[in-house]
Design brief:
Elements lengths: L1 H7 L23 H8 L10 H9 L2 E5 L4 E3 L7 E7 L2 E4 L6 E3 L4 E2 L3 H4 L6 E4 L3 E7 H10 L1 H23 L1
Antiparallel strand pairs: 1-8, 2-7, 3-6, 3-8, 4-5, 4-7
Length: 169
């Protein structure tokens, strides 16, 4: 069933002339190296070394959710970060058009740091496979790996400077 869902949502290529791909069960797992490659693309972690990303990957869980599930709700406190591996989700923000997220997109990165209220509701449009990092595990990791904290502070400072610069322009 997962194979069919992934073909239908476009997260697994399918050639009608060749039939469905014959994949082993391991094709649906996410390796530590794959986790690291995906985490490298998250702007909050942009300044992290390979060693730091490896530490983050260790606390990352693979979570599968069904279509229709509300992943986060606007106004509720946030306690985890999610990165989409497979499938699609919809971001709903009051008085704005919904935004579609797919593989490689993420949400909740600020929740890792402050646990503040969510600014949007995110709903699974298709079955999803996510990489999830809990705020509790991330906080413990920051305490254990102080250089990770410095890397994140550099990224946040850079983003703040860019935001200030764009306001001046």
């Amino acid at each position: 069933m997962e194979l069919i869902s992934r073909i239908l949502d476009g997260s697994l290529p399918y050639d009608i002339n060749q039939g469905p791909p014959d994949l082993p069960e391991s094709a649906f797992r996410v390796s530590q190296d794959d986790k690291i490659k995906r985490l490298e693309r998250v702007p909050l972690l942009a300044e992290c070394s390979r060693r730091q990303l490896k530490a983050v990957a260790k606390i990352t869980e693979v979570v599968e959710v069904p279509a229709g599930k509300v992943l986060v709700r606007a106004g509720e406190s946030g306690d985890e970060f999610s990165l989409i591996v497979d499938g699609h989700a919809r971001v709903e923000i009051p008085s704005r058009q919904p935004v579609r997220l797919g593989p490689g997109d993420y949400f909740g990165e600020m929740s890792l740091l402050d646990g503040g209220p969510r600014s949007a509701t995110v709903v699974a449009e298709t079955p999803l496979r996510l990489l999830v990092i809990s705020r509790r595990d991330f906080s413990a990791l920051l305490a254990d790996v102080p250089e990770l904290t410095r890397s994140i502070l550099v990224t946040l400072t850079r983003r703040l400077r860019q935001a200030e610069q764009s306001q001046r322009s």
